[in-house]
Amino acid sequence: MIDHFSAACDIVQSAGRVLVFTGAGVSTESGIPDFRGPDGLWSRVDPEDFTISRYLDNPELRERGWRMHLNGELWGARSEVKPNPAHDAIAELWKAGKLSGVVTQNIDGLHQEAGIPADQVAELHGNLRRSHCVDCREDWETVEVLAWVEAGEADPRCPRCGGIVKTNTVMFGESLPRNEWTTALIMASAADAILVVGSTLGVYPAADVVLDPARRGVPMVIVNLGRTEHDHLATVKLDEKAGAVLPPLVEQVLGR
Ligand code: APR
Ligand code: ZN
Fold this sequence. Notes:
three-stranded antiparallel β-sheet, six-stranded parallel β-sheet, elongated, 2 domains, Rossmann fold, 9 helices, binds adenosine-5-diphosphoribose, single chain, SIR2/SIRT2 'Small Domain', alpha/beta
C-alpha cells in the first residue's frame, strides 16, 4: 500500500520549482463556497447568471450582484474572509523559494493576503479589486463603485460615457486576461512539478495550464476532496481537505 502523503512530499521536495494551481476548494475553509462541490454555488445559483451576455442584458442581475458585494456576500471589498491554513502553507512554500508561481482560478485575492506578492499570482479569472466600464474601459477601485451603489445607484453607470460597470472578474463567455494567461504559462514552463489544490480541473482553458505539462510527464500532485476530471493524470492524488494536509506536507518538505 503506497503512502500517498510521503509520495506527495517526495515529489514537492525533490522538485526545483513547483507550480501551484488552485481552485475554489482552497478557499472553502475560509468560508467561500466552491462551485461544483456537494453544496457548491452552482447547486443554488444558475451558472447562466454568470455569463457576460446575461449580465449585460439583465439590470436586475447587475443590481443583485452589486447588492451582494455591498453586503460582503461576494467575498469582495466588504467581506471579512481571511486566508486559511492552506493559503498559509502555500505562502510558506513561496517564501522558501520552492515555487515558480501560483496560478489561481479564484477571484478572492487570498493568496496575496497570505503573503504572496501580486506579481507571483496569476489570476486567470480576474479579481474583484477593480471594476471597469464595458464600453470605454475606464476603470476604478471597486470600493469606489460600491460608494456609488451605497449612494443610491443600484446599477452604477460609467460617469464618463454612461456604460455598464462590472468588476474585473472573467465571466463565462469572456476571454481570460492576456497578461495573466501569459504569466501562467511562463510559471508553468519554469516548473518541474505541479501541485493542484481544490479544483475539479473541468474549466478551460484554465485547466490546460497544468494539464499540458502533466501530459508531457511533469509530476502532478492533486490535493482535492472528491474526483477531478483528470485524476488519471495525477502522479499522486490526496483526497483530503487542503487546510488539513498542506501544513504537514509543507512542514515535511521544508524539513521543519
Ligand atoms: N480541500 C480540498 N478540496 C476541496 C475543499 C477543501 N477544503 N473544499 C472543496 N474542495 C474541492 C471540491 O470537492 C471540488 O472538487 O474543490 C473542488 C472545487 O472545484 P470547483 O467547485 O469546480 O471549482 P474550480 O475548479 O475552481 O472551478 C473553476 O469554474 O465556475 C467556474 O469561474 C469559476 O473559477 C471557477 C472555475
Ligand atoms: Zn465608460
